[in-house]
């Protein structure tokens, strides 16, 4: 009844008010008598008028901007993904995406499309949006800097960092001397041109370098700490120098620029001694609360905007103010994490690609249309590499680093990436650089960033090392080494219990526990805390077991490949993993966040693991596990965990003589953990196989109370309930599942071993 009443009321109200609107509009037409009416569409409402209206809508500035954003994000994501796949930072792909959408490719071969998508009148909107993206990005960069690292490890790092700036800066000024007459803009003084060439050659891309260090797993080593500190010191120093250079360029002379520099010094002092303590008080008040209220968030964003505004008005660019605002954020990981999460996605995914394309629109590869110009470009690249790479390497060698580590530091410090583009765009905006020299320098930025990965691989090959130096898992004379890769703490503890059972009493053994995280989730400021939190439950478990462990915490964008690479390169004897499933399974992201283990419902085991191809067929994690199996060149243990608490009672079904290798694990389990082992002769043919029979007899003689052989065809539930773990070979597991044995539903935790 109430439903009908509501419907009647709705119809009455809408009917009455529609009728009133009709009367008002009809009466309002009489007001048009003395007015000149101009309408883009005729009253006839023809199809042509509709098309004209739609075309007019397409040319609206907002529609053009939205179309540009859609195109830019799609192209940038595609190119970024391609370059990630070939082992390069995604920023290179995004920069190239910008060049592709600019006059170098789209404008050259499809000028009509380029003119329609990027009309000259629309570039102002694109520029300002990209500048907002840069301001947010620099705010994040400032927050990612861990200033405590500078205090603790400043001695060697400052020497290397400043040498890596002063040497290429000097070479850049020398380069400017030779190219000034031909490539400097008309009316630009040599001082301004040379200073910009110097700063452009001496910059290092701290964000790209930090990601490479994390992805290669050297951030925990002394080498990793030094290079991160060098990059942080380089970043701070370079931006201070850039602020001075901008002041000099805008003022015209060094003497005139002193006023701007004095204002800049006052600004920095105010930020450090007034604003920073104020923000620290807010951090102390709200840092322990469950959530941060919006007024507090507003305060921090106001500080960012006011700081950027102040430096823009002073004359040292808004980006310096954004960087400074990030650097003075309270030293509270919670605050920094929240703000990075709020800002980073918008800045990196939505707005920063606009900057790449805006840079690409100003980069005309066609301007380098002469062999001589390509020679000059090559010479610029050579000077840049010599100054940054060898300058950093020689300084590192001078302070006591080995040649291997010195060259690694040089290769990493030579990474320029996005930071170089920011400097170049400022130079072009101030009309200190011509489009020709700007294009040459963009090419240099791409080449020096692209060469970082191959250079590190070459250094590692020459010095016969793993991933550039003191790798956590390298150089040990152990005889039996186990690597555990985990994502879920509980399953990680189960894997640790198995590892401990294999090596507890044995000398010259090592257990390494690895946790992987996506690089986009790990930031330098909270890296240590994140690592500590990740391993805390396993460290506690290792203390209970009295098992020494080594930890590896790495950031990566490819979990499967990273697990295989670490295992293959670390000379491990056994890799232990759990069955995993991505939390983004079936989504467009399609990447693994963590190798999280999963409890399998035993009643559904047959359905999940049955198929013509055997193990994991048609399961939600088949491809992932198959990739690790195919890429790893060593024994692997795959755990199906059903809350494994101890490894005392083991059940091992033997299907063929190919399972011979399991006897090695049986011997270790009995010797180290005094395990009780029950071998099931599935086919009743073990006595006829000399090799397997000899191995079993030898174990029975050594450990008569720990091993027994049964041939029962019927496995009772009571028997399975008494077992802690079933150990089985990969091939036998396939056969067992394909046989659809009824007792599969009652199996305990299972360790499937591939030899």
What do you see in this structure?
With about 750 residues, the chain is an alpha/beta fold. About 60% of the residues lie in helices and about 10% in strands. The protein contains 30 helices and 10 strands. It has a 10-stranded mixed β-sheet, with helices on both faces. Helix 30 links the parallel strand 9 (about 725-730) and strand 10 (about 750-755). The longest helix has about 35 residues, at about 255-285. The protein is globular and about 105 Å long.
Low-pLDDT stretches: 465-478, 580-621
Beta-strand percentage range: 5-15%
Q: Quick check: average pLDDT?
A: 78
User: Rg from C-alpha positions?
Assistant: 33 Å
Q: What strand line-up does the widest sheet have?
A: 3-2-1-4-5-10-9-6-7-8
How is this fold's topology laid out?
Elements: H1 2-28, H2 47-58, H3 61-85, H4 90-101, H5 106-109, H6 111-117, H7 123-144, H8 147-152, H9 154-183, H10 190-202, H11 206-215, H12 222-251, H13 254-286, H14 294-314, H15 318-327, H16 333-362, H17 371-398, H18 403-413, H19 417-429, H20 435-450, H21 452-462, E1 480-486, H22 489-503, E2 509-518, H23 527-545, E3 549-556, H24 559-569, E4 574-578, H25 605-609, H26 622-631, E5 636-640, E6 649-654, H27 662-673, E7 676-681, H28 690-702, E8 707-710, H29 717-721, E9 725-729, H30 730-738, E10 749-754
Parallel strand pairs: 1-2, 1-4, 2-3, 4-5, 6-7, 6-9, 7-8, 9-10
Antiparallel strand pairs: 5-10
Summarize the structure.
The chain has 755 residues and is an alpha/beta fold. It contains 30 helices and 10 strands. The radius of gyration is 33 Å and the shape is globular.
């Amino acid at each position: 009844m109430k439903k009908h009443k509501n419907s009647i009321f709705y119809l009455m109200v809408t009917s009455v008010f529609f009728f009133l609107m009709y009367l008002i509009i009809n009466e309002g037409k009489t007001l048009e008598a003395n007015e000149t009416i101009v309408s883009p569409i005729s009253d006839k409402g023809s199809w042509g008028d509709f098309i004209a209206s739609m075309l007019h809508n397409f040319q609206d500035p907002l529609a053009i901007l939205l179309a540009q954003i859609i195109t830019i994000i799609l192209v940038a994501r595609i190119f970024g993904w391609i370059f990630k796949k070939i082992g390069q930072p995604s920023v290179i792909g995004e920069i190239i995406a910008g060049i592709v959408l600019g006059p170098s490719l789209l404008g050259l071969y499809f000028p009509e499309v380029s003119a329609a998508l990027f009309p000259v009148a629309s570039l102002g909107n694109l520029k300002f949006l990209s500048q907002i993206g840069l301001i947010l990005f620099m705010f994040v960069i400032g927050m990612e800097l861990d200033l405590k690292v500078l205090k603790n490890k400043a001695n060697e790092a400052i020497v290397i960092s400043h040498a890596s700036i002063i040497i290429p800066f000097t070479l850049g000024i020398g380069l400017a001397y030779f190219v000034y007459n031909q490539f400097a803009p008309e009316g630009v003084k040599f001082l301004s041109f040379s200073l910009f060439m110097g700063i452009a050659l001496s910059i290092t891309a701290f964000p790209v370098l930090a990601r490479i260090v994390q992805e290669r797993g050297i951030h925990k080593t002394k080498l990793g700490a030094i290079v991160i500190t060098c990059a942080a010191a380089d970043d701070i120093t370079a931006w201070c120098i850039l602020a001075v250079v901008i002041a000099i360029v805008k003022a015209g002379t060094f003497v005139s620029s002193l006023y701007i520099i004095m204002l800049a010094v006052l600004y920095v002092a105010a930020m450090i001694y007034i604003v920073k303590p104020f923000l620290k008080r807010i951090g102390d008040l709200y840092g322990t609360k469950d959530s941060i209220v919006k007024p507090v968030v507003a305060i921090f964003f106001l500080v960012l905007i006011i700081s950027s505004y102040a430096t823009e008005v002073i004359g040292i660019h808004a980006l310096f103010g954004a960087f400074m605002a990030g650097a003075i954020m309270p030293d509270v990981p919670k605050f920094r994490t929240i703000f990075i999460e709020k800002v980073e996605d918008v800045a990196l995914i939505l707005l920063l690609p606009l900057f790449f394309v805006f840079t690409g629109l100003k980069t005309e590869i066609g301007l380098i249309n002469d062999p001589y110009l390509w020679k000059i470009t090559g010479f610029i690249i050579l000077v840049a590499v010599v100054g940054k790479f060898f300058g950093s390497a020689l300084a590192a060698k001078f302070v006591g680093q080995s040649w291997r580590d010195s060259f690694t530091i040089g290769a990493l410090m030579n990474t320029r990436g996005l930071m170089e583009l920011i400097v170049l765009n400022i130079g072009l905006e101030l009309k200190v650089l011509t489009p020709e020299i700007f294009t040459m320098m963009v090419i240099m930025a791409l080449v020096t960033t692209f060469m970082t990965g191959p250079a590190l691989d070459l250094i590692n090959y020459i010095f016969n090392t793993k991933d550039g130096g003191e790798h956590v898992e390298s150089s040990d004379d152990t005889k039996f080494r186990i690597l555990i890769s985990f994502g879920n703490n509980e399953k990680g503890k189960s894997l640790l219990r198995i590892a401990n059972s294999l090596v507890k009493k044995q000398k010259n053994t090592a257990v390494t526990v690895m946790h992987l995280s996506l690089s986009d989730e790990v930031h330098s400021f909270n890296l240590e805390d994140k690592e500590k939190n990740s391993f805390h439950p396993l460290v506690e478990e290792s203390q209970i077991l009295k098992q020494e462990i080594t930890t590896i915490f790495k950031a990566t964008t490819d979990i499967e490949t990273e697990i295989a690479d670490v295992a293959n390169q670390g000379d491990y004897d056994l890799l232990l993993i759990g069955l995993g499933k991505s939390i983004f399974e079936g989504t467009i992201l399609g990447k693994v966040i963590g190798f999280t283990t999963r409890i399998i419902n035993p009643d559904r085991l047959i359905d999940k693991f049955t198929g013509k191809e055997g193990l994991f067929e048609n399961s939600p994690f088949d491809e992932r596990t198959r990739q690790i199996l195919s890429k790893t060149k060593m024994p692997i243990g795959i755990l199906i965990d059903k809350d494994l608490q101890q490894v005392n009672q083991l059940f091992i079904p033997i299907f063929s003589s190919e399972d011979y290798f399991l006897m090695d694990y049986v011997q270790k389990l009995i010797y180290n953990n005094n395990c009780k082992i029950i071998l099931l002769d599935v086919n009743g043919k073990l006595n006829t196989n000399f090799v397997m029979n000899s191995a079993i007899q030898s174990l029975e003689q050594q450990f008569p109370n720990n091993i027994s052989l049964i041939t029962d065809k019927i496995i009772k539930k009571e028997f399975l309930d008494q077992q802690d773990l079933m150990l089985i070979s990969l091939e036998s597991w396939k056969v067992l599942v394909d046989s659809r044995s009824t007792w599969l539903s009652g199996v305990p935790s299972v360790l499937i071993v591939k030899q």
